Amino acid sequence: MDFDLEAKIPPFPFLNRELSWLQFNERVLEEAEDKKTPLLEKLKFLEIYSENLDEFFMIRVAGVMKKVKHGQVFSETPDKMDLKTLLLLIRKKTLALQKRHEKCFGSLIHHWLRKHKIFILSYKELCIEEKAYLDTYFRESVYPALTPLNIDVSHPFPFLANLVNYLLVEFEHDDFGPVNEQCPIGLIQIPPLLDRLIPVPSQQGKGETIFLLLEDLVKEYAEDLFKKRIKEKMFIRVTRNFDYTLENSRVSNLKDSVAEKIISRQNQNVVRLQHTKDAPFYLVKKLCEKLKLKKCQIYSYTKPYDYKGMKEVFKLPFPDLKFPKFNPRIPSRLALSDNIFQCIAEEDLLVHHPYESFYTIGEFIQTAAKDPKTVAIKQTLYRSSGDSPIIESLMQAARNGKDVTVVIELTARFDEQNNIDWSRRLENSGVKVVYGFVGLKTHCKLSLVLRKEEGKLAFYSHLSTGNYNPETAKLYTDLGLLTKNQEIGQDISKVFNILTGLNGTIFTNNKPLLKAQIPEFKHIFLSPFSMREKLTALIQKTKEKNGSDSPRIIIIKVNALVDQFIINELYEASNSGVKIHLIIRGSCSLKPGIKGFSENISVTSIVDRFLEHSRIFYFKGPHVDQLLLGSADLMERNLNVRIEVLFPILEDSIKHRVIREILQTYMQDNVKARSLLSDGRYILPLEKNLNLQAQIRFIELARSDGVKSKPYQEAIYQYLGKKQKRPILFE
User: Fold this and answer.
1) Strand partners, 447
2) Is 443 considered catalytic here?
3) How many angstroms separate the CA atoms of 324 and 82, rounded?
4) Euclidean distance between CA atoms 99 and 82, whole angstroms
5) Distance (Å, rounded) from C-alpha 535 to C-alpha 537?
6) What is the CATH number of domain 1-116?
7) Does the CA dihedral 588-590-591-592 come out positive or negative?
8) Which of the following is catalytic: 101, 275, 353, 443?
9) What does the pLDDT look like over 117-149, one tens digit per residue?
10) Which CATH number fits domain 527-692: 3.40.50.2300, 3.40.140.10, 3.30.870.10, 3.30.70.1270?
């Protein structure tokens, strides 16, 4: 798939999604490069950048290459870019970012970490005593896990697992007689489950912290493993196509089909080969022949490839080298209440993660599980963590005789196996488990608790922009609403009836066949049935003047904006004089600031300590004043082929908080909010007079509202269990 840059890039009004995403990852890299980022946090951003890029190649690049292979010429995205041109531009941008990534990491380990007596050394840099320690460590803790593979006529070239490091060696020809066309080579897989960084006891006695990379240790003992003289050594890693689709006509059991896809995708084609820069050309060429790769799919790197192994460095007790520590607080109104349902009944409750504790949501489900008035609990699960207290509470609720229904999305990318495992545990506990629809991901974040109150059923709902995952809730910014609004509760009940009651194969060719069977909703927008139409109607309603000089404003905060039809609607709104501010974390195909298209539109992207994940939609005009939160980004997949929910904020106090406190703070950020220019470049703010950093401001606001309530803390500790006991208020 080697090609030249011949086709021209189409003109405005659209930017390419994939190239825009690479710019988002560049903004992540900029956080590692920023002099103000604490030293160990730099390492974290380098890891995030690397993991993001791996997934980008597994899914996005793999998808583009597949289309080119099948003869498709132009992108299906709004920009309609030539796909071969796109692949070349992706490679060019990736190589440029790679140089910066390696330079940043090299400076980090060779200069800045060493200044603090933290060393990631090569084997040659160790003293005799340290090497003696590693010899024992290798024999006892590494050697038994290694399998040296000699590749010859009786040992064929093995399958290379996705994103796993291998040591490739070439043996001395003298050991094999006359030189022939077959390179005498061998492979050793670096065990992915062993610690990547090996702590080495320092012999200097001066408070030094020393690590050695596992692969460096394996490399040092390679000749001992093969019992042969080795001429060349190099590290390699492959990236495979991890994308897949399920076809309705071929699915008889969704869980079994997903399990089969998890296994089969491990064997998908290689889309990228990474190798160390010291690799001989002829060995790389031999690998390309074995793996059927073109030159444009080869990337040479300095190691390490796997930055996840650097977590051991981040765990070191150097608080001055990390962001200031804080713990999420409990909303003050809830902290002073001894009954979460009474608190919600009095007034809706907005929870802003990670500034406010996710354990508030866990308390909601756990209390419902024990509450004698609870009749039923219904929940969607897209991603969760391995020790999720919410899942434990759902199982406990079923054991307590509650009617518990859980809709698990089995095809949540890279979490498929976890979700299959959770579904089995839940089923074994008596929970009714449903898997949604084939080819239509259930991405909405909903919980519904039905309680018997005064002879009637009362609806208590939790609606969120983020997953029910206590781990990511510490790292992602999200908004969740706890409400007793009966109309919203009835809307959510209808959504669950759709998920559990309609035929799981009613969708074909990405279109719902039974749209007429979908009920009307009082408040929520549901995709793929009504969300696109209702969002479009709100944009068009905001355009209306009707003789009024009142401000017309649209503010949207999402992770991605690439849907062509929504972008066109925003262009038209801009041309009618509507002021539009878009806060788009990742890919954005809209071009702001172009006369006749988008001169009234500004776009910013905030990349900071926490991953911006909340989705907020605000429409203000003479005849509209609506604020919505939800799970959906403005992408074709979210609006056409996913179950997504947008929900309104109805109480004035919460609406005021979201607009005046949250949205306004984001819009005033002049530290981390990069502005998108019409040519596709992002620039940092130039004016620093206010020096307002949104995420720092949210921490300050949370601290100012923190209420220390000992009884409530003890209740949370009991909920978490002794092993998970931890402070929950800001320090």
Assistant:
1) 379, 462
2) yes
3) 46
4) 26
5) 5
6) 1.20.58.310
7) negative
8) 443
9) 999 999 999 999 999 999 999 999 999 999 999
10) 3.30.870.10
